Every structure is written in C-alpha cells, then in structure tokens.
Amino acid sequence: MNENMEIGGLGSWFIILILFLLAGNGGMFGGNRGGFGGGYGCGMPFPVPEYATKSDVSDVIATQTIENSIANLNTGMNSNFSQSLITMNQGFNGIAAGIANAGFTTQQCCCDMKSTLLSQAQSIKDLITANRMNDQEREIILARLSASQEIQTNVLKDYIDAKVTAAAPAATA
What we know:
This protein has 173 residues and is mostly helical. 77% of the residues lie in helices and 0% in strands.
C-alpha cells in the first residue's frame, strides 16, 4: 500500500536526488559554480582549502587586526556618543528643572505680591474711610460752629437792638 515511502522506494530516491542536487548549489552538472567539470570538485561551491602559507597567515592576522581596530573604534565612538547623550540629557534635565523652579518662584512671587497688594489695598481703604469720617466730623463741627455763631450773632443783635431801643426814647425826651 505504501510502497513509495519505504527505504528503496520511489519517495526516498526522490529525496536523495533533491539533496544531491542541492549539495551542488544548483550547478551539479555542467560546471556552473563548481559542479562536475567546474573546477572545485565534488560539487563544492567553494575551493577545497589548501595548507596555509606564512603569507596567508600574515594576511589573516593583518585583516583581523584591522577588523579589531575598526570594532574598537566603533566601540569608542559609541561610548563617546553615549556619554555625550547622557551629558546632554543631564543638561536638558537641569534646564527643565530650572524652568520648573522659575515657574514655581514666579508663582510664589505672584502669590506674595497679590497678598501684599490686598493688604495694602485694605490699608488704603481703611485710611480713606477714616478720612471720610474725619471730613464728616469736621463738617458736623463746622455746621455746629456756624449754627452756634449764628445763634450768638442773633442773640447779640437782639441784645443790641433792645439796648438801642431802650436808650433811644430817653434821648428824645
């Protein structure tokens, strides 16, 4: 029933054939990128390594030194850049704190000025009220003095008129 999936059946040969073709990196037959007749042999997509010479080792060490230098330079730049960002962030935090403090100080100053102005306004209001009371008292005193002087003047006129009238018939007789 399931003959195609057994070992030696058509299914397993098909899988082996696909693996064989994939091992050649798509160029197994015909020499494309290292197939049979392509120069690398055995279907390898890269040349079979040979023994390393002194020059090869020197080149690898020089390349590794350059790569390490670039990596160290990159690490140093990242570190310096990170430190610069941290310093800038701290500076901006200081500026933000200064602005917040200035806002609080301004608010506190405003509240203090408002309290002082209200206190001074109340003092001025009290002085104005006291001055009005003094002005009214002065007007009352002046009105009483004027009435008193008018009464005294009328009493004196009546007294003088009475004396003049009493002395006038005696002068004619």
